[in-house]
Description:
The chain has a domain at about 25-55. The protein starts with a helix and ends in a 23-residue tail after the last helix. It is mostly helical. It is elongated and about 100 Å long. It is built from one helix and no strands. It is about 70% helix and about 0% strand.
Amino acid sequence: MKMSEERKDNRLKKLLILIASPVVGLVYVIALPIIAVATFLGLVTERVIGGVINVAGKTISYGWRPTESYLLGRKKKGKKKK
């Protein structure tokens, strides 16, 4: 008896795989062009936004100079030494 139950389970698994494989293949065939177009658009968008940010970064000055440090306070302009 037990062997026949295992055979039924095995047959059911094979039948499910046989039915599911064309469905999975169809989903893959439909999704592949969509994924390719989305990837292409993402790369183009990244290039365009990166270029705009690069140009904006070169033209905008924030006045921040990481190599300069005023540890004793802000540098005074026009103050004469005694």
